Sequence to fold (336 residues):
Amino acid sequence: MNTAAAQKPILDIRDITTSYHIRRSGAQKATTLVAVEDVTLSIKPGETVGLVGESGCGKSTLGRTIIRLLEPSAGMVSFAGQDITHFNHQEMRPLRQEMQIVFQDPYASLNPRFRVRQILYEPFRIHGISKAVASQKIPELLSLVQLPPDSLRRFPHEFSGGQRQRIAIARALALEPSFLVLDEPVSALDVSIQAQILNLLEDLQTELGLAYLFIAHDLSVVGQVSDRVAVMYLGRIVEEGPRDAVFNSPQHPYTIALLSAIPDISAAQGRQTRERTILVGDLPNPLDPPSGCRFRTRCWRGDQLCVEQDPPLAPVSDSLVACHYPGAENHWSARS
Ligand code: ADP
Fold:
């Protein structure tokens, strides 16, 4: 997708932490689950940043914090140069036109009792935009997502999964946003349909100059669409860099493990060490994260330093990496 090297970011988040207060069964007091911790990320106009990591690592929480469906407990969210970290509902209202979200399951996110015409009318109604303007815009939206005009009369259940996701995208585009959070937008779809939706998103980005935060647990999907990739593990970004740097020269062992799970890429890179880079175990419980480096309980490079010290994100080659022993796998094997 587009590169936007010289532009100022449309989205800038600094040291974001987002927590949930949960009550465990039988417990008197609420416990704090830190789902996202100290995350810094920026996205330029027209750029796609892919956010990848296992289920439960905090991707959705970060996406929702960015568009202020959740309020962070620390850090700053800035959108188009404006600090929106603590904006209330009223203050966020005009910005809701600028930033939208598309969810994984289009069926759950579309009202089954509404025809498509009404689904697409909702954003206009909520924002007090006249019916006349909406009536003119709605057929245009349908054509943007390449659905036939007679779709307006139909209900969501009359469409396939891919078509329903097109409707959800059309609704997200109704108010002409400049930034979309795409939260696992193709994960519920068959592979052939995934490609169609990814192509559509790419075309829309080119046509409308949109910026995307593209969230997925599947690194191969993220690789197809992203200019930059941020890899998340247990609430933190552990590696971030240009797509090609992350794919061709991954530095963090977690990124290497995610990449080695993509058969084509492992084969193309001639990786001989695949057995060593298969992830073992599950994501640790965020209520009880490991000391030091959070990845150390699943890492084959870890030592005492990793137990004791949490590695900060630091520049390595073209990327930022949070690892005491960063390096592409070949380089690391050669050293060990
Ligand atoms: P991902 O999108 O990567 O799957 P999430 O952001 O959904 O991750 O979840 C991150 C962590 O926060 C998980 O441990 C999850 O169980 C927890 N979590 C998510 N939503 C809530 C919630 N509404 N209340 C309490 N905990 C939550």
